[in-house]
């Protein structure tokens, strides 16, 4: 399968906790390196695709979500079927709870974001030079990175990759989106979950800035 680095890589999922079956849209299949519908996603398959060093951590996060239904985000390395290793953020927007069943949470919904291309650019000398050249905006970008690190549990390079991803796919200058993220982070004392929810709303719901 030919890689298309400039194609937005974000896709929706729904996880049926009772059957451990996943519903993916076409883009999630592509993130996993397979054609849409080529495999039947199960929890075992989803975990098997993770880098061995990340697998237990992702499994713990998923298990906790099936007990509480609370939103989460986790960044990990994915070993795709096409032989590529991808940097992916799995974001759960929350679970569907049913008090009439033995399983407290019956479904989780959310999306995958493939940061591979942006991560590569974020770690390149070209990207580092671009940030250094914008000295007047560097503090804002660094603060926005810190906000994303806290909200999503990312490291600094992953946070910068996420900023670049949203900048490109929202067609907004990096310094501008960093300023909006920073504004949220300084607007009040927010818990990690509240901060993540606020950033999600900014980055996903707003059509433009």
Description:
This protein has 9 helices and 5 strands, in the order E-E-H-H-H-E-E-E-H-H-H-H-H-H. The longest helix has 18 residues, at 135-152. Helix 8 (174-185) runs antiparallel to helix 9. The relative contact order is 0.12. Strands 2-1-5-4-3 form a 5-stranded antiparallel β-sheet. The N and C termini lie far apart (35 Å). With 209 residues, the protein is of the alpha+beta class. The chain folds into 2 domains: 10-114, PAS domain (Beta-Lactamase, 2-Layer Sandwich), CATH 3.30.450; 119-205, no CATH class.
- For the record, the CATH architecture of the largest domain stands as 2-Layer Sandwich
Put simply, the count of helices is 9
Over the alpha carbons, how many angstroms does the gyration radius reach? 17 Å
Proportion of beta-strand residues: 15-25%
Helix share bin: 40-55%
Number of strands: 5
pLDDT averaged residue by residue: 79
């Amino acid at each position: 399968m030919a890689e298309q680095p400039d194609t937005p890589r974000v896709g929706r999922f729904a996880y049926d906790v009772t059957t451990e079956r996943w519903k993916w849209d076409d883009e999630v299949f592509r993130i996993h390196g397979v054609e849409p519908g080529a495999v039947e996603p199960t929890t075992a398959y989803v975990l098997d695709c993770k880098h061995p060093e990340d697998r237990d951590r992702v499994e713990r996060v998923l298990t906790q979500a099936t007990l509480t239904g609370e939103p989460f985000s986790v960044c990990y390395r994915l070993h795709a079927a096409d032989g590529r290793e991808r940097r992916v953020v799995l974001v759960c927007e929350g679970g569907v709870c049913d008090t009439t069943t033995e399983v407290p949470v019956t479904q989780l919904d959310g999306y995958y974001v493939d940061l591979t291309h942006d991560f590569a650019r974020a770690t390149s000398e070209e990207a580092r030079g671009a940030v250094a050249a914008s000295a007047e905006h560097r503090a804002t970008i660094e603060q926005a990175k810190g906000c994303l690190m806290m909200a999503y549990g990312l490291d600094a390079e992953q946070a910068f990759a996420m900023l670049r991803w949203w900048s490109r796919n929202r067609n907004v200058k990096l310094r501008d989106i960093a300023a909006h993220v920073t504004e949220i982070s300084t607007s009040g004392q927010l818990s990690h979950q509240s901060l993540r929810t606020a950033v999600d709303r900014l980055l996903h719901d707003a059509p433009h800035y």
